[in-house]
Design goal:
The structure holds 2 protein chains of 2 kinds.
Chain A: H1 4-27, H2 41-62, H3 76-99, H4 101-116, H5 121-142
Chain B: H1 5-15, H2 18-36, H3 42-49, H4 58-83, H5 92-103, H6 107-141, H7 145-163, H8 167-182, E1 184-185, E2 192-193, H9 199-202, H10 207-225, H11 243-264, H12 271-285, H13 298-313, H14 315-321, H15 327-338, H16 345-350, H17 352-373, H18 377-381, H19 388-407, H20 410-428, H21 434-456, H22 463-466, H23 468-497
Antiparallel strand pairs in B: 1-2
Helix pairs in contact in B: 1-17, 2-4, 2-17, 3-4, 3-15, 4-5, 4-6, 4-13, 4-15, 4-17, 5-6, 5-13, 6-11, 6-13, 6-14, 6-17, 7-8, 7-12, 7-21, 7-23, 8-21, 10-19, 10-20, 11-12, 11-13, 12-13, 19-20
Classes of the chains: A mainly alpha, B mainly alpha.
């Protein structure tokens, strides 16, 4: 998907297939009552809309004439940075329940700041600690929200 | 509800006591702080902070709750402007132009105009509430399911305007939003839809998770990819808008107040809907519509004014009929009942002191928001100068906290992450995000209204065209779609004629 045209063709195909998928999934929806709008109506409409628009986008891109703009994708380093950031966010979410919000927040913030700026490891630790403490006392203690506390904080 | 100068003056006397002023100020401040957190909007903010008000007498507690509500509405716009994270759905249009202004070093004027527009719209709306509540409440009663469907359909037609030149992609974006909103249980029959047997998906996809993912997470991904050091490298100029900026926005403030207040009288018409309608209206009447989405100050003024007006309008049916017409009003109703007060026509006879004190406090609350937040504009605007290696992770942390607090399930945070990736690719591939947001907000209301309407008409779709109000909105929607398509086709024809076939 290096250019707009090729990207639109691929996305058009994807949207078309998504539309087909939604239409098929809609046929499996059960339930409803007499004289009421069947529950599969709107999903079916959405499916057909996706199907038609997907085909439309594919055809439009296929027939495109003129300058084909190049898409700006990240370079290798940018790609890995994004991946690592997403993976660390995923780990934060996954670890929030077992470790608790404060500890998971500390780990996430400290790692992310350090990863984005390797020289600032002390800043990373300090801000991570502050975030952990604030999240514990503000969200869990003061506002009494049902965030997981984790074993360390007695949750 | 009968208006009385005596009661209003008495209400001001109560609301202007030192104690109540303090509680209102505290409520505004806390509400703003809570509203700043992505995912925690006014409804969650009031619900979370409600226990804090139990130590107060009833009048003071309700004054504080109303102030929290206003504060949270304003707080959502702060992050929308400064870091492109709408605090709630109604701040999405604000983010579209507000963030662009922030990148241009004009975060201060954007924040300031947001506060000023909120103040003007809120004050005018409270005046309308004070004098015209019974008449306005009757207007809301006229709306039935066909009118609601037509209104929501008109709202969806705004996709044309929000899509810019990428109409087909805008419609695809809208369809994805509709599809995401349909996951879960059918609101009318309870049937499971697009859940594939998953218990988690049965709870549906919360649109706040979608919005926060599409805006906040994708924005962070793009900033990380580009290895930016700060959000805005442009020197921050003025903190306040110029007189020219304010003059430009005078008409906008009046229009968005009208739109927000009148639509806000309708049960179920949330600020998220009216903010888009007001934004679209301003874009259509503007002499420079091409500037919208690129830092037009009216693009910030319109949604912020309208959502404040809508919030105030929600009090009309609450006080007149005892009907909460929005989730936020339902929470406030709960707060009122907690103190043994039952909103409705009798409330004015049994507790006039209380009611008029609350109404008076709304005037004061609006002034307080302005007084409190204008001096803080400089502080909020400086956020764009925080190094991104610190700001980015903190933004993500806030989004996780905000979305987790929706239902206290990690599932909602995973949804946010997924839509963050979706939003990133949408932005890379030229798909407008706003139609997806609008569709996800409107989908369930649209379907419910359609189902109820067809039940009334025994399956005949003509009901949408035979009832006057509904016919007007359907006509406007069809005209809007037709006009938008014609403009697209015409502009492409002009481009082709000029020999530059822009895709």
């Amino acid at each position: 998907m290096k250019t707009q045209r090729s990207a639109d063709i691929m996305v058009g195909w994807f949207v078309t297939l998504l539309g087909v998928f939604v239409i098929i999934a809609s046929t499996t929806i059960k339930g409803g009552a007499p004289h009421r709008l069947p529950p599969q109506t709107f999903p079916m409409v959405v499916g057909f809309l996706l199907l038609i628009c997907g085909i439309g986008l594919t055809l439009k891109a296929w027939r495109m004439q003129g300058v084909d703009l190049a898409l700006k994708w990240p370079d290798r380093q940018g790609f890995w940075t994004i991946l690592v950031c997403l993976a660390s966010l995923g780990c934060f979410i996954a670890l929030m329940n077992p470790l608790g919000l404060p500890l998971a927040a500390f780990v996430y913030i400290a790692f992310s700041i350090w990863y984005l700026k390797r020289s600032k490891w002390l800043t990373a630790i300090v801000i991570g600690l502050i975030t952990a403490v604030v999240s514990y006392y503000l969200f869990i203690r003061l506002l009494a929200l049902s965030f997981p506390e984790g074993e360390l904080f007695g949750g | 509800m009968d208006f009385s100068w005596g009661y209003l003056m008495q209400g001001f006397a109560t609301a202007l006591s030192l104690q109540n002023i303090f509680w209102a100020l505290l409520g505004c401040f806390i509400g703003t702080l809570v509203g700043v957190l992505p995912g925690i909007g006014p409804v969650s903010g009031i619900a979370i902070l409600l226990p804090l008000t139990t130590v107060l007498p009833p009048t003071s507690a309700i004054i504080m709750m109303a102030a929290i509500y206003y504060g949270a509405m304003y707080g959502g716009s702060t992050t929308a402007i400064v870091v492109n994270i709408p605090g709630e759905a109604s701040s999405v249009p604000t983010a579209m132009d507000g963030y662009e202004m922030a990148k241009q070093g004009r975060a201060g004027p954007a924040l300031a105009i947001s506060a000023i527009a909120s103040f003007v719209a809120g004050t005018i709306s409270v005046i309308a509430l004070t004098f015209f509540a019974p008449l306005l409440a009757n207007f809301a009663v006229v709306f039935g399911p066909p009118e609601y469907f037509a209104l929501m359909f008109f709202g969806l037609s705004l996709v044309i305007s929000l899509s810019g030149r990428a109409l087909l992609k805008g419609v695809i974006s809208m369809a994805i939003g509709l599809g995401a909103a349909l996951i879960g249980q059918d609101p009318l029959t309870g049937s499971a839809r697009l859940t594939f047997g998953s218990a988690k998906l049965l709870g549906g996809v919360d649109f706040i998770s979608v919005i926060v993912g599409l805006f906040a997470i994708s924005e962070v991904m793009i900033n990380v990819e580009q290895r930016i050091t700060v959000i805005s490298e442009v020197e921050i100029g003025r903190w306040m808008p110029t007189w020219a900026d304010i003059r430009q926005c005078l008409g906008t403030m009046l229009r968005c107040t009208g739109v927000g207040f009148l639509l806000g009288l309708l049960p179920g018409c949330a600020p998220s809907v009216t903010s888009f309608v007001a934004y679209d209206l301003e874009k259509r009447v503007s002499k420079h519509p091409e500037q919208f989405g690129k830092g037009a100050i009216q693009g910030v003024c319109a949604p912020e004014g309208s959502n404040n007006a809508t919030s105030t309008a929600g009090f009309v049916p609450l006080f007149s009929f005892g009907l909460p017409t929005a989730p936020s009003m339902a929470v406030l109703l709960g707060g009122l009942m907690m103190y043994g007060l039952q909103p409705g026509p009798m409330l004015f006879k049994t507790n006039p002191d209380f009611v008029w004190a609350v109404i008076a406090s709304m005037y004061i609350g609006n002034v307080m928001l302005l007084v409190l937040n204008l001096p803080l504009v400089g502080m909020w605007a400086k956020i764009v100068k925080i190094p991104f290696y610190i700001l980015g992770p903190l933004i993500v942390f806030c989004t996780v906290v905000g979305t987790y607090s929706l239902r206290f399930q990690a599932y909602d945070v995973w949804v946010m992450l997924i839509f963050g990736v979706v939003g990133y690719f949408m932005r890379k591939l030229g798909f407008p995000v706003a139609p997806l947001v609008l569709a996800s907000v409107l989908a369930q209301m649209l379907e419910t209204a359609m189902g109820q309407s067809l039940l009334i008409s025994q399956g005949s779709p003509l009901i949408f065209f035979t009832r006057p109000i509904s016919a007007v909105f359907m006509g406007l929607a069809i005209l809007s779609v037709g006009w938008g398509i014609w403009v697209q086709v015409r502009s492409k024809a002009l481009v082709v004629a000029a020999g530059d076939d822009e895709y």
